[in-house]
Specification:
DNA-binding, 29 helices, six-stranded parallel β-sheet, alpha/beta, eight-stranded mixed β-sheet
Length: 765
DNA sequence: GAAAGTGGTCTTTTT
DNA sequence: GACCACTTTC
């Protein structure tokens, strides 16, 4: 941590091996050590490798002490992997100790935690601050709406939060917003909500994700010598996924590298998929303007995917107008065809994916680990998950509801959070609403205590504690039942607080679930309840990981980890044979031998919101196209693209059209199969009909349509898969005209009699 | 104050 | 079809 610590590293390894196996451009990226460097790296071009080798090279060859290197990654997982890699390259052991590496947000916390005095004095944030996640923020916005007497129907909290976050990501304070950015009545509402939100956030001694980026800058403004200290210290600053940085991150990085100007950024403008959270593609496009002396290196050779996949990706992304002209190439073999498949609906799509996965796994060429199914929206995962469960295909889901976001987990976490930060009103509210101990404490009691606490200049939870210790003088207008219930809660909080810092977190957990009566709320007889209780116990095992940590430090460290881990971070490298289900966004940076992209449809990819905004904002569609590009380029060997003719939306089936993006797929790499005629559930028109009937929009351009395979016939004993009923065995068959009537015994639904032509059955081996 | 019921609204992606 | 805010009923 000490910047004056300029000790020479003990590494005396020959550094020559660090360039082994790198191509000339990669080598140049590793060895261009002084001045700003921009590496524009296409997918699969070895950028992770370059980053790791560069850091290792700086340490081993240039003798830069690890603690004078700062590397920013997009996820914690990437940081972990990078560290491992660097350690392996530099002789293992603890060689990478001292390297400052992590996400922007983790880095932000680090700066704040390292300077508690200045942060408290100048920014008004006490050392025990909490990090509010998305759900907490939303709670706070709702509370702000209530305080401002605004209708939640009219001013959707989600939208308000997104507008607030946009302001914060541009460093626009509530005051500045009020003075310069209020143009419409809606802006005026935003102004009010933003101001209140920010006030409540600070009152709760909490910071949100945007603050984690903005507050370090405020800190440096308040204490310029602090910035100088870090500038002096960091000889080298490296940033991964630079195309997805926002304005604040750009300023932070520029500031930190301001002294030595050794700023090394790696990114791919074609993979910029976070504009919606204020990522600013200009950061990478204008790097050379910002740093005129910059060296620019292009990595265009793809080592990941087959030639057919690379060419397909290249053709797709070429259609974007706002783009640096460049190409992606590979020396890899041609590989297999890309498969494009139309299905009648989402069930059938899931069933197709299941059938293909079975086929692949049974061929022994791949295992479940090798396969990922990607989609645009989390909602799509449900049908696929269901089909996997019914077919006993092991899977894991990345994204969606984080473990820490589950209700029952959050309930217990709320207590831990409140113990750490008594000002955390969001958690207090949660406890009052959800734990048995909160019963009997209604809005009136809470308001009375809140009022009293304000008068006494205490955090609200202290009012509860005070009730249990000093009783009568507290909140005199609080009557009978409410007073009794509040006193009970206060007593438990006081008792728990007495043990914080001296007892291990698991001990605290045990006391919480028993004394708050939480454990008793889970009914023994309900399977669902038992599952939820199992989740609570899983939280206990998670806490147990911190039992080795000094009890005084365990709670803050744990809570910080909870706030900053993403779902991808917890993804194990070894998925133990399970297929990965993942959103396209989360899949960035990953690779799989086999990739399915489901729902390549108008309305999903591109998403409907982007289509609606198309005329006003064509860039939105381009971002969707980049997302598709990211998906395609995750695949090493096999790529399957599927879309459905109709899809369930708001509880009803809606016709769905093939994505416009499919029109740019090169036909020579494609195997296309249209939907089988399915009479049962097919309100959507087939692709050919759609191409014939709709007008000249791009989306209607026909993709090659291969005739549907001949209808299969079934015999008794056949194993089949039905999109609704799952797996079953044919027990009887009877010929009806040119059709078959089948009796099928389904594992989960018993015997059904179905017509072969209508039932969407797929044979199973 | 709590539980059960009703009607209206939504679904983009995440550190 | 799921979830939430709001109501009715006890």
């Amino acid at each position: 941590m000490d910047p004056t610590n300029l000790r020479k590293p003990m590494l005396q390894l020959p550094a020559s091996h660090l360039l082994d196996g790198l191509n000339p451009e990669q080598s140049r990226a590793v060895t261009t050590i002084s001045g700003p460097v921009l590496v524009v790296a296409g997918p699969g071009s070895g950028k992770t490798r370059v980053l790791a080798h560069r850091v290792a090279y700086l340490m081993a060859h240039e003798q830069v002490p690890p603690d004078r290197i700062l590397a920013v990654t997009f996820t914690n997982k990437a940081a972990r992997e990078m560290r491992d890699r660097i350690e392996r390259l530099t002789g293992g052991g603890e060689s990478a100790r001292g390297l400052v590496m992590g996400t922007f947000h983790a880095l932000g916390v680090r700066f704040l935690r390292q300077n508690p005095g200045v942060v408290a004095d100048r920014l008004g944030i006490l050392p025990n601050f909490l990090i509010y996640d998305d759900a907490d923020q939303l709670d706070l916005v709702k509370r702000s709406l209530i305080e401002e007497s605004l209708d939640q129907k009219q001013y959707a909290p989600r939208r308000m939060l997104s507008r607030i976050s946009n302001q914060k990501a541009q460093l626009i304070s509530p005051d500045e917003f009020a003075q310069e950015h209020v143009k419409t009545f809606d802006d005026e509402i935003v102004r009010r909500v933003y101001a209140t939100y920010q006030r409540l956030l600070r009152k709760a001694n909490a910071v949100d994700f945007d603050d984690l980026l903005a507050l370090p800058l405020a800190l440096f403004d308040a204490a310029p010598r602090l910035l100088e200290h870090y500038q002096e210290r960091f000889l080298h600053v490296l940033v991964d996924e630079y195309q997805d940085t926002n304005r604040v991150q750009y300023i932070l990085v520029s500031a930190l590298s301001g002294k030595h100007r050794n700023l090394f950024v790696v990114g791919d403008p074609d993979q910029s998929i976070y504009a919606w959270r204020q990522a600013d593609i200009r950061n990478i496009l204008e790097f050379q303007q910002d740093f005129p002396e910059a060296t620019v290196i292009n990595l265009e050779t793809n080592y990941r995917s087959t030639a057919r996949i690379v060419d397909t990706a290249d053709r797709v992304i070429r259609e974007n107008r706002q783009r640096l002209e460049r190409s992606l190439r590979t020396d890899n073999p041609e590989g297999e065809f890309v498969v494009l498949r139309e299905l009648s609906d989402g069930h059938h799509e899931a069933q197709f994916i299941v059938a293909e996965i079975r086929r692949l796994v049974q061929s022994d060429k791949v295992t479940g680990d090798d396969i990922a199914v990607m989609y645009r929206t989390i909602a799509q995962s449900r049908l696929i998950e269901e089909a996997f469960r019914q077919s006993n295909i092991p899977y894991r889901i990345v994204g969606g509801v984080r473990f820490y976001d589950r209700k029952e987990v959050k309930d217990v976490l709320a207590v831990l959070r409140l113990l750490y930060n008594p000002a955390d009103e969001v958690s207090l509210q949660r406890i009052v609403d959800n734990l048995p101990l909160g019963r009997g404490i209604g809005p009136k009691a809470l308001e009375a205590l809140r009022y009293w606490a304000t008068l006494e200049r205490l955090p609200v939870s202290e009012a509860f504690v005070a009730l249990s210790t000093t009783g009568a003088q507290v909140a005199p207008e609080l009557g009978g039942a409410g007073r009794a219930a509040s006193t009970r809660l206060g007593a438990v909080l006081a008792s728990l607080r007495g043990r914080v810092g001296s007892v291990a977190l698991t001990g605290l957990f045990d006391q919480i679930v028993s004394e708050t009566g939480y454990k008793a709320t889970f009914a023994q007889d309900s399977e669902e309840e038992m599952q939820r209780w199992a989740n609570v116990l899983e939280l206990r095992s998670d806490l147990a990981k911190y039992d080795e940590v000094d009890p005084a430090q365990a709670l803050p460290q744990y809570l910080e980890q909870v706030a900053l881990v993403s779902d991808v971070d917890t993804m194990e490298d070894d998925s133990r044979g399970r297929v990965t289900l993942i959103t396209l966004h989360s899949a960035k940076g990953l690779e799989f031998p086999v990739v399915f992209i489901a729902g390549v449809e108008e309305g999903l990819l591109p998403i409907s919101r982007a289509i609606e905004a198309e005329w006003q904002n064509p860039a939105a569609i381009e971002e969707e196209r980049r997302l598709f590009y990211v998906g395609i380029t995750r695949a090493k060997h096999l790529l399957f693209l599927t879309y459905a003719g109709s899809r369930m939306l708001y509880g009803g089936y809606m016709p769905s059209a093939a994505s416009r993006f499919l029109a740019s797929l090169p036909q020579q790499h494609l195997r296309t199969v249209a939907a089988r005629p399915t009479l049962a559930r097919s309100p959507g028109r087939s692709l050919t009909e759609r191409a014939r009937n709709t007008s000249s929009s791009e989306s209607s351009r026909p993709v090659v349509v291969v005739p549907a395979p001949p209808r299969k016939t079934f015999a008794a004993g056949d194993h089949v898969f039905h999109p609704r009923f799952g797996e079953g065995t044919v027990t009887e068959t009877a010929d009806r005209h040119d059709d078959q009537e089948l009796a099928i015994d389904f594992a989960r639904h018993g015997v059904k009699r179905l017509l072969a032509s209508l039932a969407n059955l797929d044979p199973l081996e």
